[in-house]
Amino acid sequence: MGRPSVLAWAMVFVVLFGLLERGNSQELGAPKEILMGDTVSFVGPYAIFGGLSSFGTKAAIQDINEKGGVFIRQYKKRIPVRWITRDCQSDPLKVAPLTEELVLKDKVHLIGGHFEVPTLRQGTAMVAEKHKIPAVFGVGTYEAWVAMSKAAAVPWRHSWAFGFSIGTPAPQGDYRENDPGYLMMPTWLGALAQYAGKTNKKVALFALDDPDGRGWYQGFSKAAKEMGFECYGAEKEFGIYPVGTTDFTSLIQEWKRAGCEILWGNSPAPDIGTLLRQCKAQKFFPKVVFATRGAMFQQEIAGWGGDLPNGVLMEIYWTPEIKNAKGIGSTTPKSLADRWYKETKQPLAQGIGWNYAVAQTIFDALERAQTLNSQDILKALAETDLVTIWGRVVFEKETQFQRVPLAIGQWQKTDKPWKWECPVVFSYNKNLPVTGKMIFPKPWD
User: What are phi and psi of 314, to 5 degrees?
Assistant: First the structure.
């Protein structure tokens, strides 16, 4: 064979140069950062979910950025992540316009990154749908979220939510199917059943008049009745009170006359504290007190005053002892908690685990999407099956909802500087083990 001609060498050079240029252009087209944006309640009644627990989101971003960022195959490189936030001040009316600002002004690639209550996520979902941008966030209750989603004028197909189910079972074939450790009502009733025989089974119910409160009230009263409990005035929704209520005397006096020995409700922390103080002042001493929403964080229950938190039962979704869970790189549930203690010097806020997992799921979907194209990211989210710091994440196909594990905790005195800690005292979930013994009856001294 003869030596290659000049033309042949020229063609080889052109091909190689083209490949090189293509690679360079892909890298040159890569954004400097992947921008996540979200509205956060840094102040107001829900700041405990947003501002305080955003430590978890920031920790996940720190972990992924220590690896150089998220690897995006389209650009053949890792790209660091930046989280841009706007303070919605716990106001649902501010969420949509502030989210619009993140989309139009900051040009975020995705929306989300942490937990807020359902009413603070309606605006998020509407803006995500309007601009066709993927959104991944926490919302709390399945029932409230799904009801709002179904009522929306335009289906929320760009929103993916983390939360828990009050009593709606997982769909057939889901790994959580028939597992009470992923259902709040069976878990609550299981805990209550341990001491039900030592009460008259008469329940006093209270709830804030909002989608979250009503959803809980209706779900619990129905399930409790089926279990043989008498929920006073449930058919008239007695105990559902309007926003801004500060005097619960009329409720307390009726509960006393009815002889209720169990108090159960869903309200923000300040309302629960006010109610318990008035119960004590009016000598209404239920043997069992369950309080959801506003009793999940030491930073809130400590504000009730005195020893009112002692013996109050509440829901737990994440602890450093959670099993079958891992973070990014070498981060574990325990090491995340250790970082929290070291950096904040505060009692543990369980929300840091929730928010870390939301961000971790976003990074995984981005890497599998291989691009920053919205449709590719949505497809990756639909195919998610990931072990996170909060356990396994698999979104339901129809609702695009991730059901999280749960258990029951109880506020008890400790010798720690922050006085109160909340061990798990009842659990059906194999990944959230019991770590303490339940106090019964609730002390009122």
Answer: -155, 175
187 and 291 co-located in one domain? yes
Q: What CATH number has the domain bearing residue 298?
A: 3.40.50.2300
For residue 204, the enclosing domain spans: 181-317+407-426
Name the β-bridge partners of 289.
263
Query: Taking the CA of residue 284 as centre, how many other CA atoms within 13 Å lie in the half-sphere pointing to its CB?
Result: 25
Contact yes or no for 253/259 (Cβ under 8 A): no
Please tell me whether residues 363 and 399 are part of one structural domain: yes
Give the model's pLDDT for residue 8: 54
Number of structural domains, the chain?
Answer: 2
Per the listing, tokens 């209520």 go with: 245
| Long-range interactions of 434-437: CB distance < 8 A, separation 24+ | 434/407, 435/319, 435/321, 436/410, 436/412
Is residue 27, in this structure, part of any structural domain at all? no
Those residues with Cβ within 8 angstroms of residue 409's Cβ, 6 or more apart along the chain or in another chain = 313, 314, 315, 316, 422, 423, 424, 425
Residue 225's Cβ-count burial label (10 Å; 0-12, 13-18, 19+) is middle
Chain segment 183-193, per-residue pLDDT in tens? 998 999 999 99
Query: Could you tell me if 99 and 111 lie in one domain?
Result: yes
Residue 386 CB contacts under 8 Å (≥ 6 apart), including other chains: 360, 361, 364, 392, 393
- pLDDT score recorded for residue 11: 56
| pLDDT, position 133 | 98
Q: Domain check: are 232 and 205 in the same one?
A: yes
Residues linked to residue 230 through DSSP beta bridges, in sequence order: 202
Examine the domain organization and report whether 233 and 271 are in the same domain: yes
Q: Are the C-beta atoms of 339 and 328 separated by less than 8 Å? A: no
Q: Give the per-residue pLDDT at 6.
A: 55
Q: How far apart are CA 285 and CA 300, in angstroms?
A: 22
Note whether residue 289 is domain-resident: yes
Task: For CA atoms 287, 292, 298, 303, give the dihedral sign.
Answer: negative
H/E stretch holding 424 reads strand 424-426
Both 287 and 221 in one domain: the answer is yes
Which residue ranges of the chain lie beneath pLDDT 70?
1-28
Q: 352 with 59: CB under 8 angstroms?
A: yes
Predicted TM-score (pTM) of the model is: 0.89
